[in-house]
Structure formats: C-alpha cells, structure tokens
Specification:
Largest sheet: 5 strands, parallel
Number of strands: 11
Shape: globular
Structural class: alpha/beta
Strand order of the largest sheet: 2-1-3-4-5
Radius of gyration: 17 Å
C-alpha cells in the first residue's frame, strides 16, 4: 500500500515511519503546497492529512485535491479537534475518515487498511434522479449549472440512494456497502449522511434525503 503522509511534526513523522515503514510505502510532506503537489503527481492508496499545516491548511488542501484530482483517493484527516462541527468541516472538505490526536499508531494502521479496502464507486454510466445527476467515477454531482465534488464515501452513499430511489435503503445495507465488515461506530453513517445533505444543499436540493426511523434513508426526486 502506498500512503502519503502530510504532517509537519517531524517526531510524529519519524514514529509513523518506524511503525509502518516495513509494510507500507510511505511518502512524507511537511507543508500544504508540497503535499498537494505530491498528491496530484503520484498515485496513492490513502492520504493522511494533518489539519494544521504551513503554507496551506489541511482543509484547503483537501478541497483543492478533490477539485483537481482524477481519482477518488480516500483521505484520513488528523486533528486535535474532535467536535461534530470540526468533523463536519473535514467531511465537507472531502475527508473520508477522522483520527483525533493523540492517537495510537496501531489504530492508524487499522484505519489505513480499512480505508484501502473500502469499495470504490464503479466507473460507468451517469445516474440521474429528477434534476440530480452523479458521475460515479469522479464523484461529481450536478443539478443544472451547479456542481459539487463529493468524496469517495459520499459518492458511493449517493449512488446507493439514487439506485434505490424513491425506496429507502436500510442503515445495515448502507453500512455494509460503504465499509464491508469494517463498519465504524454507529454515528459514522449519520455523520456522512449529514455531510451529503450539506453537499446537496449547495445544489439547491435541501431536505431531499429523508430519514425513515428504523428503516434507513431515501432520496426524493426533485425536478427543476
């Protein structure tokens, strides 16, 4: 597995290198601009991204990478912030997972392996429900002239809802399709649904995802 670690703390870099170096191919960057350059010029299985970086924040780097990259590479964001609002900001910027500092290097390894195993939205046909379209291979969602780039988890989540619309998809089915047997804590799905709702709101599709208690979620078609 090839992993890019964008982290300006040299001691943490060294600890990660010692713990993972024997089994992972690791590249390191210490600034935001350097990390963005590496992320766009090489193919990585996972990107580990610190939130506070010199030259460019992790949020900005994540956003710019999602805008410019041709591949939906999973991003694990590292931060000392642990509120729901902080996590929402990271997910909306394009992160797929969150790890709060200080953290166990063993947990970092487990999360990297789980991210690399997550299903990738398959390439192929454009999906359309009402006025909403999704390009599964790029994560680009559009409605008319407006578009938004989704992260890999959001793109797969939206794909599953669009394929089933207007029928609901159970939370168990969504969790299995998103994470297989590596499903995280129960709040993770709700957090990603919340982030996806925020992305669709940018397209003027407020409240198009409905929560069905004890059943799951459904997507409502909206016409222009």
């Amino acid at each position: 597995m090839r992993v890019l670690v964008v982290e300006d703390n040299r001691d943490l870099q060294a600890n990660i290198a010692r713990f993972l170096g024997a089994d992972f191919q690791l590249d390191f960057a210490t600034t935001g601009p350097q990390g963005l350059t590496l992320a766009l010029s090489h193919e990585y299985d996972v990107i580990v991204l610190d939130l506070m970086l010199p030259g460019m924040s992790g949020i900005e780097l994540c956003q710019r990478f999602r805008q410019l990259a041709a591949r939906l590479v999973p991003i694990l964001m590292l931060t000392a912030r642990d509120t729901l609002e902080d996590k929402e900001e990271g997910f909306r910027a394009g992160a797929d997972d969150y790890l709060v500092k200080p953290f166990s290097l063993r947990e970092l390894r487990l999360r990297l392996e789980a991210l690399a195993r997550r299903p990738v939205p398959p390439s192929g046909r454009r999906l359309t429900v009402g006025s909403l379209t999704l390009e599964p291979d790029t994560g680009q969602a559009r409605r008319g002239e407006r578009g938004v780039r989704l992260n890999r988890t959001e793109a797969l989540l939206l794909k599953l809802l669009m394929e089933s619309a207007p029928e609901p998809v159970s939370t168990a089915t969504l969790a299995h399709q998103l994470w297989g047997d590596d499903a995280p804590e129960s709040s993770a799905l709700r957090t990603h649904v919340y982030a996806l709702r925020g992305a669709l709101a940018e397209l003027g599709l407020d409240d198009c995802i409905t929560t069905h208690r004890n059943k799951g979620y459904s997507l409502e078609a909206r016409e222009d």
